Amino acid sequence: MGSRAVRSVVPAVLREEPAFRLLFTGQLLSVLGDRVTMLVLPFAVLSVGGGPAGVVLVSVAQFVPFVVLALPAGVLADRLDRRRIMVASDAVRFVVQLVAGALLLTGHAGVPVLVVLAVVFGAADAFFQPAITGLVPATVSPAGLQPANALRGLTFSIGSIAGPAIGGVLIALVGPGGSFLFDALTFAVSAVTLLLLRLPRAAQDAPAAERQHFFADLAAGAASVRSRPWVVAFLAAGSAYTVLVLPAIFVLGPVLSGERFGGATGWAVITAAFGVGSLAGDLLLLRWRPRFALRASALALIGASCQGLIIGSGLGTLPVAALEVLAGVCVTVYFSLWETSLQEHVPDAELSRVASYDYLTSTGAIPLGSVAAGALSALAGPGAAILVLGAAGLLVAFAVVAVPAVRRLPRGSGAVEAAIRPEPPAPAV
């Protein structure tokens, strides 16, 4: 009876794919640590005498390296052992968070030091992301790819809900410095799980891509992107989502919360509702396999892009929270099915390079979105700014759905087979 209960609760990809199970465990803890740090970072800057400008400077410093390093990182991840790149990235981030925590605890930290550490952290992170996108398909069968990405999304959803709660407790108990040490520990665990990772024999024996000159490989990555109109369309969509929609959540939403949602408490309810929706979306994708994954992702992007209009609509806290549940589902479906489509259709030898453009146009554009939101808010006020940005983001989302290559892209063969022959349900007890 115990084994039947496990089969009914634990997804097949975790039961049957030991390599992915190990990767998932390490990343769950690592993402949780990152979400703790996201909450703690502003308090760390303030604790060393930095004001709001210092908080912005340190936060932006983490994302700037993506602009410079994302594309070279993709080339290296296609040329070298992705697992080793990820271990090296974890090791660097472990040291960075360890040093930051020690300096904060001993009173030797300052804003300039935290900026430098944030740049180093962001540089290491830029190498990790293209590598893990390329590594995931090597840890699962083709039929397990979508559930694997859904579970990766689940780590972010859990981290977004549990991370702030754990961060608040850690700040109260050990201060910002101790919280950074907690994050350092999660990177150590992630590195250990990667070192223990043993890929299936087929993945280990796969022939390496023919290596050209570094810049030739870089140009080949750009050509791979250009040859796929659906990739170009989604890269544009990711940029628009980052620049136009995300500021509604991270910049303008909190500004409006005091006026419209009763301050921090109301905003916490809204963000928690979004987290619940994200979790629901992850669980949905463990079972639902749309025949046209990219089309479903594009339609979900429309719902995800409504967030600025939802938050700026003038509705009360509870109606906005209810709509944010639906937005959370859409965001998860959008990102997970987009990444699954990349992994199903881009050859392994090119995958990290193509994925690096995704990280460049999304994560690398975060500072631009913050600047755009701040400038528009100064000109027209936060209420008008959030509606203008939200409407622009929604128009881009509709334009992406109109691209024929996006609507017509089929599933990979493994996903089709899984849809035809789904996993049988656990026998009744």
From TrEMBL:
Classification via Gene3D superfamilies: MFS general substrate transporter like domains
Domain Major facilitator superfamily (MFS) profile span(s) in chain numbering: 19-408
Keyword Cell division carried by entry: no
Transmembrane segments: 20-41, 53-77, 98-121, 154-174, 230-252, 264-285, 292-312, 318-338, 359-379, 385-406
GO molecular function: transmembrane transporter activity
Classification via InterPro entries: Bacilysin_exporter_BacE_put, MFS_dom, MFS_trans_sf, TM_effector
GO terms under cellular component: plasma membrane
Xref: PROSITE patterns: MFS
Keywords: Cell membrane, Membrane, Transmembrane, Transmembrane helix, Transport
Membrane protein topology class: Multi-pass membrane protein
CDD domains xref list: MFS_MefA_like
Family annotation (Pfam families): MFS_3
Protein's cellular compartments: Cell membrane
PANTHER family given in the database record: INTEGRAL MEMBRANE EFFLUX PROTEIN-RELATED, STAPHYLOFERRIN A TRANSPORTER
Name of this protein: MFS transporter
Native organism: Amnibacterium setariae
Lineage: Bacteria, Bacillati, Actinomycetota, Actinomycetes, Micrococcales
